[in-house]
From TrEMBL:
Its EC number is 1.1.1.22. Transmembrane segments: none annotated. Substrate binds at F158, L159, R160, E161, K210, F255, L256, N257, A258, G259, G263, K326. Belongs to the UDP-glucose/GDP-mannose dehydrogenase family. This is UDP-glucose 6-dehydrogenase. SMART domains: UDPG_MGDP_dh_C (SM00984). The keyword NAD applies. It catalyses: UDP-alpha-D-glucose + 2 NAD(+) + H2O = UDP-alpha-D-glucuronate + 2 NADH + 3 H(+). One of its GO terms (molecular function) is UDP-glucose 6-dehydrogenase activity. NAD(+) binds at D30, K35, T86, T121, E161, K269, R333. GO terms for biological process: polysaccharide biosynthetic process; UDP-glucuronate biosynthetic process. The active site is at C266 (nucleophile). Keywords: NAD, Oxidoreductase.
């Protein structure tokens, strides 16, 4: 099939490359000309494992092309996919301006029957508004009759940064929300070759499934963080609790790692957007408010513990390991690590940070007083404390014996319990995790 993918971010590019791998002809469109120029040269503008190689392959097979000019490629399209960003507004609601701008652009230049797919995460009712925007613009362009033949299908995206390409090819489910059975079956055929259960629903259900999935996972994280705080007070180890409950198939082992809470471009914004959506529909979703509160408190209490133990951090040198919101990505949007680093800077600490992939993105958001070190060891040399904020595997490969000699004071605050198994106390470190039952919170 011929596909136009609008938006070449983490979702649009990965799924565009994925569909091209399945043999479809994909034209990727973005308003960011520098991104398109890099993609045209075969360069992925962000870090996602395997994507660079996959892009090269589909480029050489001629199945993918990049442009800023929607009009030049839309004429061929059977399907037009919207994968633009829907970031949060200050109120917590989703900002749909990019989506509606792109819808209008489609309406301007679409001159044949096509199925529109919304892949961006959007509040209930948005797909219908997108369709209304497209139809209205087509009508203004004297394409009234044709506008009635345009269909919309909600296909929310569930990929995870870090394993995005794998998630595209083998996924738990593909949700297809549609009014029109023929449009739904076209989208089903588009996904031929992907191993996943198909779930066909109404448009509204599909829109809500995406928010429900992220809100549920965020709830699991906040739940285990609450257990961690209790574990600290009663001398239990939250890792044992996570394992003990995770072995129960009804609960499952995932998203039960206690720490400084969830971050990233999806969970914080989607949980807030769902809470807002509920409020706008006259329903107070109390559980979600608590999930958000617990997540915020988790960062606060980690920071408080650090300051309590170190005393005044002003002028102290603190090493930060990890800036991405999770390993295997360079994405720092809503990263808890960035927030902790910012708070330390605000209190006058001298920060030396290291992240294997996210330094360039972090430089854009962190103060220019932050030192970006070339290695984890360099960041920690001369430090009064080390703060571990992202679970990058290379952090476990460091020689902790050498690290102990390089640091001025031996404090390690591990916001992810990532190094908890290494028995660092035996090497002379003062090691603090989250919920390991070794912290007197009184
Ligand atoms: N990142 C994830 O892990 C993930 C996972 C599932 C769902 N989602 C959802 O997918 C959507 C996209 O997320 P993302 O992380 O890929 O965003 P992103 O910010 O990485 O990419 C969005 C892209 O859209 C482009 N764009 C904006 N307006 C445009 C227009 N009018 N025409 C063409 N391009 C335009 C931007 O330049 C940018 O390159 C969001 O709704 C997000 O919530 C993201």
């Amino acid at each position: 099939m011929n596909l136009v993918m609008i938006g070449t971010g983490y979702v649009g590019l990965t799924t565009g490359v994925g569909f091209a791998t399945l043999g479809h002809k994909v034209a990727c469109v973005d308003i960011d000309a520098s991104k398109i120029a890099r993609l045209d040269l075969g360069e992925v503008p962000f870090y996602e494992p395997g994507l660079q190689e996959a892009l090269k392959q589909v480029q050489s097979s001629g199945n993918i092309m990049f442009t800023t000019d929607l009009e030049s490629v839309i004429g061929q399209a059977d399907i037009i996919v919207l994968a633009v960003g829907t970031p949060p507004k200050s109120t917590g609601e989703a900002d749909l301006s990019a989506l509606f701008a792109a819808s209008q652009q489609i309406g301007f230049c679409l001159d044949h029957e096509a199925v529109i797919v919304v892949k961006s995460t959007v509040p209930v009712g948005t797909n219908r508004k997108v369709l209304a925007h497209i139809r209205k613009t087509m009508q203004e362009k004297n394409r009234e009759e044709l506008s009635g033949l345009i269909n919309i299908v909600s296909v929310p995206e569930f990929l995870r940064e870090g394993t995005a390409l794998q998630d595209f090819l083998v996924s738990d489910r593909i949700v297809i929300g549609a009014d029109d059975a023929i449009a739904a079956s076209t989208i089903d055929r588009l996904h031929e070759g992907i191993k996943a259960v198909r779930l066909v629903t109404t448009i509204e259900s599909a829109e809500l499934i995406k928010y429900a999935a992220n809100a549920f996972l965020a709830t699991k994280i906040s739940f285990i963080n609450e257990m961690a705080n209790l574990a600290d007070r009663v001398g239990a180890d939250v890792r044992d609790i996570a394992q003990g409950i995770g072995l129960d198939h009804r609960i499952g082992p995932h998203f039960l790692n206690a720490g400084i809470g969830y971050g990233g471009s999806c969970f914080p914004k989607d949980v807030s957007a769902l809470e807002q959506l509920s409020g706008h529909n006259g329903y107070s979703f109390k559980l979600l408010s608590a999930v958000i509160e617990v997540n915020n408190r988790q960062r606060d209490s980690f920071f408080k513990r650090l300051v309590d133990e170190l005393g005044d951090v002003k002028g102290r040198r603190i090493a930060v390991w990890g800036l991405a919101f999770k390993p295997d990505t360079d994405d720092v949007r809503e990263s808890a690590a960035i927030e902790i680093a910012q708070r330390l800077c605000a209190q006058g600490a001298e920060i030396a940070a290291y992240d294997p992939k996210a330094m360039e993105n972090a430089k854009r958001v962190l103060s220019d007083t932050v030192i970006f070190a070339p290695t984890a060891m360099d960041a920690a040399s001369g430090a009064d404390a080390l703060v571990v904020l992202t679970q990058w595997p290379e952090f476990k490969e460091v020689s902790f014996k050498t690290l102990r000699d390089q640091m001025v004071e031996p404090h390690i605050f591990d916001g992810r319990n990532y190094l908890a198994d290494l028995h660092l106390e035996q090497l002379g470190f003062i090691y603090r995790g989250v919920g390991l039952g070794r912290y007197d919170a009184s």
